[in-house]
């Protein structure tokens, strides 16, 4: 039995409420005042944020609503792109955030309330849990929820764990679906995604439903197909302008001088870089004279890493691009000296940034995807059966299939050409240690593809080296030396990534009502079971490092040993044909040992010579030879059962009945899967690998919960209405044990038109499966070795420096290297000066010792609907959230530092850093170098945020406020003032924080306004403005010590506004047409942000969309 009660509404105020629910825009739930003029029945319902049925005007927590019409009419490509325009959700993960090198996450659309992380936002469908699409996570891909089935989205912007369980730390998104749909509805949309290209998005959705058995049974079916085309860098118009700040001047190093009045950075357009040519560039060894005192634009370099004969041909500082020494190549591999155009980068040793000439736009070079291509099929069917007048049965099944693809840009490597090493070194041509990525390779000057003009210059090359500068003089010239060395910056095949996801979800439930028993009245109950599965398959096509090394080291078979005289062949084939064995760097087997490669080994026998010089010069056979295929197959499984009952237990003092709700929940989460290590099959790839998920990556939780809502008074001398409510939940996890949370809410309405709401909630977030059980997945990091003698010598804190010297010596001795290295004097002959030719390979992994995060949140809201302004409502929501024991990753660099920074070795961090005890057969000394590290999460961080949401809604019939009947207007303004957003991530100093408010992605104020005009019932035009304040790039206080760092206008982004127009026309009663223009003014991010894409500034320019909604019956 449905319970209703009379609430007095003024007719003019009712118009304001209807306006607040206008479908053109997401609105904050407003309270509805009473009036003595007329009455309206208001049905009590369950509103997101509570399980107690109540009048929605007394909802205890701040609530934002988004309608189905808003989602269908928006010009945004996806549901999440629209939701991200809501200030409280502005840092949600949109598809463009998932490109680059993210693996297995292509196209995932994850809501992120308050910018506290997608894993701290709970997403529900009809109040029930939904399986997560990100492996090992509960984060829900909201684009898997059928758009046409959505009735509205209710967003609670505050902690709600006591009502809905763990993970509702920053709030809840509840997707409320349409019920008992009868008829047929077809909705279609076609849109341009990006102004600079012709990429499109196409969607067709069909929903049909029928009522049977005297309307007791409703059966519905839904199907949708969506095709979103790939947007790559070349298609984005503003990226082609190649804006960027480049180094213009370095300030003097003389004591007392911090600036010289010349801007350190200057803005240029049409920048090019020679270092990143698709066809590669080769630079012959050279030296640069350091003079940081008299010419600070050229900095000093430590002697051990300068271009000196003693440092050898692998010294990176020998290969700064220089006119007359740098070559570029055409598609046939022919070489010519590079055209440097007009040099604009005046600082540092690198001279490859310029305008004009042979370089490439650094933003377009990768040709990578910025918006991934995707094709999606979504289906859902269900039934609703009224078993009795008071008991309803429900069942639904959903299937989603998604395919995504992206280009992550080409694989990169450095190839050194030199005869400095013996021919035997060519038997292990990958220069990296096996524990790092294979990005440094060796070939000799007899390489068959090396052009003759380049070879001649290399052979005659002489380097003028320089010593270290002094306080009064530049680096002195040293003795010249012959340096027949060159380094080629190589870019091989593109890193293509393919992703498929299949989602299956089943829900069965029953609910009902009962008049009650005795003093227990208005009983409502619900019981349901949900099962969900998401299977994720990700495929990559990386470069096989060892095969690449063999293929690029091509020579001429002058004697025809392999059959054809003077044919170009792989050197490795000639070596093995003459009886040599080749080191198998995949397994570590040395040349001449068991397991070494021979002529019959596939790596050798299948080798095809690869011409690395020039884009398109390599044959398809060579490309096929170096290309590997790896993949993962992972699966999330969720089982959830919830039972709840709510009722009232009497009105004892005339304020209204007391509401109560009780319930229990069981949930099980599991993740299984195979990693890339399995498909890599031991090969050394230019990509990362990862282990399988270990058995037992799962948890179960059993929970009980309760709510109580007590009306305090109604229409008394204390005010119009007040209610105190509370909620409590106890959870018992098989991984982290028992925990409880609670919430307290107060609603006070002194007069019908004004309401105050306040809430305090505690919440928890249990570590998800990836954080706790995630398998080792390879990652790479550029680590500055804390034991490097030069690094130690440069430390200003001599206490830490002395502790590092002692700890590094102790650690070296534990590896049998006691007394081998000097850690205190960088000029000593045995100084520890490690050379890392590439980034260090490490691993990301879970941590089974994690405990839950805990949080506290406070909200205070004011809702006002002034009687003197019918149709106007004002809402202010203040919020504070603090998360403690927050899970945060400790990087390899941090662990390496903390291992040796203290009075003694810190075993917690030393245990995750691996150093080599042996010297591998490579040009550099590998002893004591970092060869591996482990990055895992720990409960050490904290987050705090506070701010003010504001919402203004106004609706009016123009005939009521003007002498003419001109139609109707609806206006809404919704925004957030971010007062504070602090990150406490320093594990060494828990009180150290980074303030994010007003920094990039975190505008101090962001607001969205919507103005709709309907001259009649057929046509509506809507103007939407998304506006955000300037965000700091450089803090102005930092310029006190360096006032000429850049022009003042480049310190922040400037304010940003995007204007959208939407038009809807009801051609017939059963057919609506719509048209939209997104970013009408073609607003772009500030040029001085360079070529980094910031999604909150709308990178895609002016674009158009059209659509229709057809309802034949």
Automatic annotation (TrEMBL):
Residues 58-172 form the TonB-dependent receptor plug domain. Keywords: Cell outer membrane, Membrane, Receptor, Signal, TonB box, Transmembrane, Transmembrane beta strand, Transport. This is Outer membrane receptor protein involved in Fe transport. Belongs to the TonB-dependent receptor family. One of its GO terms (cellular component) is cell outer membrane. SUPFAM superfamilies: Porins. Residues 1-26 form the signal peptide. It is found in: Cell outer membrane. The lineage of its organism: Bacteria, Pseudomonadati, Pseudomonadota, Alphaproteobacteria, Caulobacterales. It is a multi-pass membrane protein. Its main location: membrane. Residues 522-1080 form the TonB-dependent receptor-like beta-barrel domain.
């Amino acid at each position: 039995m449905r319970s209703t009660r009379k609430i007095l509404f003024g007719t003019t105020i009712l118009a304001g409420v209807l306006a607040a629910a206008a479908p053109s825009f997401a609105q904050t739930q407003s309270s509805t005042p009473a009036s003595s003029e007329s009455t309206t029945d208001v049905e009590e319902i369950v509103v997101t944020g509570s399980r107690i049925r109540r009048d929605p005007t007394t909802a205890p927590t701040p609530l934002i609503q988004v309608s189905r019409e808003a989602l269908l009419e928006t010009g945004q490509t996806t549901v999440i792109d629209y939701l991200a325009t809501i200030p409280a959700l502005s840092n949600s993960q949109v598809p463009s955030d998932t490109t680059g090198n993210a693996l297995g996450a292509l196209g995932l659309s994850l809501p992120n309330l308050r910018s506290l992380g997608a894993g701290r936002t709970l997403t529900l469908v009809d109040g029930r849990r939904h399986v997560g699409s990100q492996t090992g996570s509960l984060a829900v891909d909201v684009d898997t929820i059928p758009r046409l089935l959505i009735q509205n989205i209710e967003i609670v912007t505050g902690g709600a764990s006591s009502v809905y369980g763990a993970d509702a730390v920053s709030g809840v998104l509840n997707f409320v679906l349409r019920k008992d749909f009868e008829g047929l509805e077809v909705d279609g949309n076609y849109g341009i995604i990006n102004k600079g290209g012709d990429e499109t998005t196409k969607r067709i959705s069909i929903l049909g439903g029928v009522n049977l058995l005297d309307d007791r049974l409703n059966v519905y079916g839904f199907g949708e197909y969506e095709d979103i085309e790939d947007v790559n860098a070349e298609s984005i118009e503003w990226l082609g302008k190649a804006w960027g700040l480049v180094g213009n001047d370095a300030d003097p190093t003389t004591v007392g001088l911090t600036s010289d009045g010349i801007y350190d950075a200057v803005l240029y357009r049409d920048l090019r870089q020679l270092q990143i040519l698709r066809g590669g560039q080769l630079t012959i060894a050279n030296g640069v004279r350091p003079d940081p005192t008299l010419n600070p634009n050229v900095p000093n370099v430590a002697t051990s890493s300068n271009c000196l004969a003693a440092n050898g041909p692998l010294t990176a500082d020998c290969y700064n691009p220089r006119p007359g020494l740098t070559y570029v190549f055409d598609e046939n591999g022919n070489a010519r000296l590079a055209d440097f155009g007009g040099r604009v980068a005046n600082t540092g040793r690198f001279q490859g940034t310029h305008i004009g000439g042979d370089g490439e736009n650094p933003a377009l070079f990768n040709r990578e995807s910025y918006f991934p291509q995707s094709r999606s099929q979504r289906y859902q069917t269900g039934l609703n059966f009224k078993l009795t007048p008071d008991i309803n049965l429900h069942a639904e099944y959903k299937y989603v299939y998604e395919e995504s693809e992206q280009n992550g840009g080409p694989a990169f490597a450095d190839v050194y050409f030199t005869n400095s090493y013996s021919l035997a070194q060519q038997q292990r041509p990958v220069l990296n240690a096996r524990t790092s990525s294979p990005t440094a390779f060796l070939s000799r000057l007899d390489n068959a593809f090396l052009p003759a003009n380049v070879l001649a210059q290399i052979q005659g090359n002489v380097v003028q080296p320089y010593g270290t500068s002094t306080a009064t003089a530049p680096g002195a010239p040293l003795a010249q030396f012959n340096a027949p060395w060159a380094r080629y910056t190589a870019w091989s095949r593109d890193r293509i990534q393919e992703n498929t996801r299949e989602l299956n979800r089943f829900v069965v439930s029953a609910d009902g009502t009962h008049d009650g028993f005795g003093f227990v009245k208005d009983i409502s109950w619900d019981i349901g079971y949900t099962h969900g599965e998401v299977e994720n398959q990700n495929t990559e096509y990386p470069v096989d490092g060892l095969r690449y090394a063999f293929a690029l080291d091509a020579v001429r078979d002058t004697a025809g040993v392999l059959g054809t005289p003077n044919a170009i062949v792989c050197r490795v084939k000639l070596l093995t044909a003459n009886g040599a064995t080749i080191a198998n760097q995949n397994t570590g087997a040395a040349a001449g040992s068991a397991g070494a490669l021979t002529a019959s080994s596939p790596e050798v026998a299948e080798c095809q010579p690869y011409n690395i010089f020039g884009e398109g010069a390599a044959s398809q056979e060579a490309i096929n030879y170096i290309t590997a295929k790896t993949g993962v197959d992972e699966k999330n499984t969720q089982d959830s059962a919830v039972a709840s009952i709510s009722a009232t237990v009497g009105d004892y003092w005339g304020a209204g009945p007391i509401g109560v709700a009780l319930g229990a929940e069981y949930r099980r989460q599991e993740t299984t899967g195979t990693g890339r290590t399995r498909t890599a099959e031991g090969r050394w790839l230019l990509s990362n690998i990862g282990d399988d998920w270990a058995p037992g990556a799962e948890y179960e939780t059993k929970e009980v919960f309760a709510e109580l809502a007590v009306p305090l008074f109604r229409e008394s001398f204390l005010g119009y209405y007040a209610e105190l409510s509370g909620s409590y939940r106890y959870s018992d996890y098989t991984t982290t044990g028992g925990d409880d949370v609670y919430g307290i809410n107060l609603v006070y309405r002194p007069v019908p038109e004004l309401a105050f709401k306040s809430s305090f909630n505690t919440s928890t977030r249990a570590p998800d499966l990836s954080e706790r059980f995630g398998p080792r997945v390879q990652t790479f990091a550029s680590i500055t070795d804390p034991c490097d003698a030069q690094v130690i010598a440069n430390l200003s804190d001599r206490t830490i420096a002395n502790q590092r010297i002692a700890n590094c010596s102790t650690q070296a001795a534990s590896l049998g290297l006691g007394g081998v290295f000097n850690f205190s004097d960088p000029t000593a002959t045995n100084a520890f000066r490690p050379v890392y030719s590439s980034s260090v390979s490490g691993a990301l992994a879970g941590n089974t010792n994690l405990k839950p995060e805990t949080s506290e949140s406070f909200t205070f809201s004011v809702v006002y609907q002034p009687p003197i302004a019918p149709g106007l409502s004002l809402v202010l929501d203040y919020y504070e959230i603090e998360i403690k024991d927050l899970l945060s990753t400790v990087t390899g660099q941090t662990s390496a530092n903390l291992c040796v920074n203290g009075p003694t070795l810190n075993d917690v961090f030393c245990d995750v850093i691996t150093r080599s005890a042996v010297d591998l057969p490579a040009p550099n000394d590998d002893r004591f170098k970092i060869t591996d590290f482990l990055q895992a999460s720990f409960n050490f961080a904290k987050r705090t945020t506070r701010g003010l949401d504001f919402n203004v809604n106004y609706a009016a019939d123009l005939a009521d406020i003007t002498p003419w009947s001109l139609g109707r207007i609806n206006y809404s303004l919704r925004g957030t003032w971010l007062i504070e957003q602090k990150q406490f991530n320093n594990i060494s100093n828990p009180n150290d924080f980074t303030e994010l408010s007003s920094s990039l992605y975190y505008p101090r104020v962001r607001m969205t306004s919507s103005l709709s005009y309907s001259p009649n019932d057929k046509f509506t035009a809507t103007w939407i403005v998304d506006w955000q304040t300037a965000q700091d790039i450089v803090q102005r206080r930092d310029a006190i010590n360096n006032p000429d760092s850049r022009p003042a206008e480049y310190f922040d982004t400037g304010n940003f506004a995007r204007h959208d127009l939407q038009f809807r026309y009801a051609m017939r009663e059963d057919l609506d047409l719509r048209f939209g223009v997104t970013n009408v003014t073609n607003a772009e991010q500030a040029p001085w942000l360079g070529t980094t894409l910031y999604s909150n500034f709308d990178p895609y320019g002016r674009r158009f969309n059209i659509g229709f909604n057809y309802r034949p019956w």
